[in-house]
Amino acid sequence: MNVVSKKLRRLTHPQLRSLVKKSEQKMVQYRAENVFKSSLLNELMTDKFEYKGAEPNKILVKDAQTNEPVEVNVEHEAATIGDSFVREFWTITDKDGNLVGSKFYDIEKNSDNNWVMKAGSMSNYSSNLKGIGIRLDQIHIERAIQLGIKEIPRNSFPASTLYHAKVGFLPKEQELIKVRSASFLKDFLEEAFMFRELEDDLYEPIVVEKDGNFYLDVNKTIASTNLGRSKKLALDTSFKKIRNLLGKPSQLTLYGEQMEFWKKLLEKHSILKKLQINLTKIQ
Fold it and tell me: Exposed, middle or buried: residue 268 (CB in 10 Å: 0-12, 13-18, 19+)?
């Protein structure tokens, strides 16, 4: 295709070209308004919430009523299969031994024989304590850094998209679908993601241009739309109904600048270095 043909091709898609620019701005906004904008995360990463006692495997989280630090216990288990798979389990219990949070993740060797993190699962069982999820993620991220792993993937359901953004997980480009008109986008969203009941201003199609063609970035579209939905629900209900948000999950990743941000945080606020736990040695 010659230069003239390329220019003509672009002129026939003014709406799509406009959407490309809006999409770029939307993803910049996604990062700027949400990533590491968690007041609870910032508070937990202060000396006030550093455990300074002598008992083993204790950390501090926040009492939901008093807003003061409270001790919880950390326990760890690991399952190793062969020389290419490790699953690590972490649990947090309160002073009475009640389970208040748990997480597992997998560490596997890829086709290049390098260790990589695989998405796991996390549960928070307490409404009386704040920061359980952040502490579990802190352990998970610190473990990845300890092993030299550069990316942590995450399968994010709509209700957790806002939380994940606030601790640094972002959508990466994955599935691209070629589009020929702006009208195609809304039809595709409605059919593929069942967003028929969404208000128009919550549709967030993320469109990219490559070699003169236009594509819907499916993963970023899902993440951006879910973020808008979750923020609206949080605002309308003071977070009371955000857990009920349904829809298609997106794939998020902690990597690059966000991983470096965590590295700096953990230099001063490590958990793993203080726990008396023998972690699985991975060669």
Answer: exposed
